[in-house]
Structure formats: C-alpha cells, structure tokens
C-alpha cells in the first residue's frame, strides 16, 4: 500500500514534468487499476458479442456451413472459454453451441442450448433440416489444441444423435477455431495496452532498489514479490514469474545449471512475466542491471548495452518479417536468414497471445525447433491478432570475457490502418536499473524510447 502511494506520487511528478512531450512511452509505466467486476463483465461481454458476430464470416472464409460444439459441465471444449459470457464459470448440464455461415433471412446464425434432456438434439435436428448445411465442422483436429476440444465421449454422442444423414456432413476445419480465438477486435486494444503497462510497471518496481537489496534479496524473493503485487492489483497470471541471474548459459537450454541465490552488484537480471485480466494475457521478458555503489546509468558496461541493442535489432527483424498470410515457418526462415546476414546469433520462438498466453495461430519457431515447427508452423499468419515476439540474441561481452544471452519478449498488435505490426506498449531499449540504496527517487524512472 505504501509502495503504491509512493509510486503514484512519483507518477504525478513525472506527468507534470513531461506534459509537453506527452505520449505513453515518455513516462514511467503506471499501475492501471481495473474497473469493478460488474463493469468488467459489461466490457468483456460487449467484446465477446462483437467477436461472436464475426463467426459467420469465418465460416464462409473456410467454406464451412455450420460449426457445432457440445460439452458437459467441467469437460469444456477449448473454444468454450472464448465464447462464454463473463458470468459463466463453466459449461452446465450439456451446453451446445451451433453457428451457421449462411442462415436464411429471419433465421438466427448463433444458437446455445443448456439442457440435459433429449430435446436439445431434436431442436438441433430441426435447425439442420431447415437450414440444410452441406458441412458441419466439429473440433476434432489431431494436432491443434484450439481445434481439438471436442471430448471423445461427446463426439460419439453427437454422431449417434445426428444420425447417418447429418453425421456424413461432419468435417474438421481447424482454422475455424484458430481464427475465432486468434482474432482480436479493435476495442480490445486499449485494455490490452493497460494490462501491458501494468506488467511493465510491476517489472520496473520489482527490478529496482525498492525490492532488491544486493547481497540479500534472492531471485525467488523477487518472483514472489511479483506474485503478491499482481494479487494486490486484483489481476491474476497464467504462469509463475521467473527471475534469473544471467551468465553465459542458456536458461531455456536443457540441463544447464541456472545461477540463483542472492542478487549481487553487477548482476544482469532477467524476468519472464505475464498478467491476466479481462480475458486477456500478456507475456514480457525484460533485463535489468544492478549498479555498484557509487555507479550511475553511465557505468553500465558497454558490452551489455551492445547486447541489448543486438537483441532489439533481432526483435525488429522478426516484426518486419511477419507478413500476413505467410506461414510461421516461412517467417522463421526469412527472419533467421536476415539475422545471420546481419551477423547476429540467436534464436526465435514467437507465438500468438490473447485469450491464452500461448494462443491460437501459427508459431514462429520454438526454442527447440529452429528449422521448422511441424503443423503449427505451417498455419498462415492472421491479421487482427496479437503476437509475443520472443527471442534471444547472444553477444560477446568483453567486460565479462563471455558470450551472454540477451532474452527479450514483447507483445505486438496488428495495425490494420497501417498494415504493420506495432508494440502494444513499448520495446525495452534500456536496462531496468537496481540503483544503490539511497539513490534519488527521481532517478528511478528511465525514458523508454519508442
Ligand atoms: C454461403 O452463401 C454464399 C452466397 O450465396 C455462397 O457464396 C457460399 O458458398 C455459401 N456457403 C458458405 C460456407 O459460405
Ligand atoms: C482491488 O479490489 C478491492 C476489492 O474490490 C478494492 O477495494 C481495491 O481498491 C482494489 N485494488 C486496486 C489496486 O484496484
Ligand atoms: C577469456 O576466456 C577464455 C575462454 O574461456 C580464456 O581462455 C581466457 O584466458 C580468458 N581471458 C581472460 C583475460 O580472462
């Protein structure tokens, strides 16, 4: 509570001193309070309705006439979580959803039944007989989780209840669920940006002398501080924050021993961190440097600054290679080629984000798959979606006589007007700094240039 007040006071100062150059990236990231739950529900449901109204277009795009989902309480289809209202906490009884691509005039294109009697099936058959779809998509893909959420028992029930006439029309079209879950409507962005700013604010405070006392505070202490902070702000998360002290080992590599214990002066810190709220998830990796007593920002070793700059360049390379319609594997190949041609060494493992931390859409590499990602890397890149540009560049740091790993991750969104990708909140271009205790509070924040 005290810390929050101090931050608010500082933010006010900064707000006043930077009004002339206003713009979100000229000021320190601030904690963004969430509206009361009742208002959150109104916001979420309005966004959900907008997304649902797009389903007929998605079905038409993939040439499917109907999309049928069925689930029982606690055995939900993956798509259920992107279809439900804010006040639904699970499926109830048997919850069945049916969508039509080409409903005839005066007929609804979206149906929901919550029932445990045979009436649900006779109702569905009535709609099918009347609308006569040539194909009925079920979420029965073998590889893509978002498109394979129909439980095995429920599949048998559907086939039995539809009878031979309609079960012959059953098809699998995985892109229907992928595009529904992956498509972000415009009105979601201002909220996503607020979530992202909050994530940056938590990292900024966690990676500062307010939380870290060199020689005492451990990486685990910072991880739990972040968990508590998320809770205090009434957000949640989708994974345990992870804080590491970087050296010349790949923290994502298998079998490597990661340095832990108390954080020391001169350490390079790394965090992998995300928050969840309003049905959205963020994913960020940032770096920090722990200044020695008496040091200022100008004392950060040049080799570390160059490493961060190299990783920034790789972020830009990935972003500029993300052509809509290309497969993740093609984007990976092109981005790696450009990376090597610019003399950079690193790995790319970027993923869609939104309804899920690792959401629906094509994958651009995985940390263990740099040639291609089978199936998931073959999907086409969709527009109007969010991605997490996740990667590392290695760089030789003469001051350490070591090649170090510079891990960064930042979320981007598709700017439909400009036909390009942009950072949701910003790109980390300067290290977070843990200053020696007693440094002036005004020095706490650093300008992050866009
Ligand atoms: C729906 O109707 C349009 C216009 O008649 C037609 O082109 C299309 O093939 C139909 N089916 C689907 C799945 O879009
Ligand atoms: C979190 O929620 C509680 C209960 O509604 C509220 O009193 C508090 O102000 C909220 N905190 C923040 C930081 O929004
Ligand atoms: C730098 O590291 C290399 C390889 O680990 C080692 O051979 C060399 O002696 C080191 N140089 C210095 C100045 O410590």
Automatic annotation (TrEMBL):
Q: Which UniProt keywords apply?
A: Signal
Top-rank lineage group of the source organism: Eukaryota
Tell me which positions the record assigns to the signal sequence: 1-22
Name by which UniProt lists this protein = Uncharacterized protein
């Amino acid at each position: 509570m005290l810390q929050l007040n101090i931050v608010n006071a500082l933010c006010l100062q900064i707000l006043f001193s930077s009004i002339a150059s206003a713009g979100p990236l000229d000021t320190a990231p601030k904690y963004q309070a969430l509206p009361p739950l009742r208002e959150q529900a109104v916001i979420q449901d309005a966004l959900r309705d907008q997304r649902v109204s797009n389903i007929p277009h998605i079905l038409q795009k993939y040439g499917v006439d109907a999309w049928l989902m069925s689930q029982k309480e606690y055995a939900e289809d993956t798509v259920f979580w992107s279809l439900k209202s804010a006040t639904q906490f699970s499926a109830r009884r048997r919850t069945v959803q049916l969508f039509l691509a080409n409903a005839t005039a005066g007929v609804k294109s979206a149906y929901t039944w919550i029932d445990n009697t045979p009436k649900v099936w006779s109702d569905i058959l009535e709609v099918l007989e009347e609308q006569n779809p040539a194909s009925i998509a079920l979420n029965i893909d073998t590889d893509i989780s978002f498109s394979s959420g129909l439980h095995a028992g429920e599949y048998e029930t559907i086939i039995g209840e539809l009878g031979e006439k309609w079960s012959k029309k059953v098809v699998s079209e995985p892109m229907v669920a992928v595009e529904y879950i992956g498509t972000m409507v415009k009105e979601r962005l201002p909220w996503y940006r607020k979530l992202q700013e909050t994530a940056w604010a938590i990292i900024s405070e966690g990676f500062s002398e307010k939380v870290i006392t060199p020689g005492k505070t451990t990486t685990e202490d910072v991880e739990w501080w972040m968990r508590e902070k998320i809770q205090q702000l009434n957000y949640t998360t989708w994974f345990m924050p992870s804080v590491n002290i970087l050296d010349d080992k790949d923290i994502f590599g298998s079998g490597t021993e990661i340095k832990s214990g108390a954080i020391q002066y001169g350490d390079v810190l790394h965090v992998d961190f995300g928050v969840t709220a309003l049905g959205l998830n963020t994913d960020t990796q940032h770096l920090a440097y722990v200044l020695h007593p008496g040091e200022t920002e100008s004392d950060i070793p040049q080799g570390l600054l160059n490493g961060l700059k190299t990783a920034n360049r790789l972020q830009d390379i990935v972003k500029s290679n993300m052509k809509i319609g290309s497969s993740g594997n093609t984007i990976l190949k092109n981005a790696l080629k450009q990376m090597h041609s610019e003399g950079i060494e690193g790995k790319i493992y970027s993923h869609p984000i939104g309804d899920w931390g690792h959401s629906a859409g094509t994958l651009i590499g995985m940390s263990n798959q740099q040639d291609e990602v089978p199936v998931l890397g073959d999907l086409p890149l969709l527009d109007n979606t969010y991605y997490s540009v996740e990667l590392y560049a290695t760089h030789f740091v003469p001051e350490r006589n070591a090649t170090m790993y510079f891990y960064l991750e930042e979320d981007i969104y598709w700017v439909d007007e400009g036909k390009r990708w942009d950072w949701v909140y910003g790109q980390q271009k300067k290290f977070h700094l843990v200053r020696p205790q007693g440094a002036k509070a005004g020095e706490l924040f650093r300008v992050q240039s866009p």
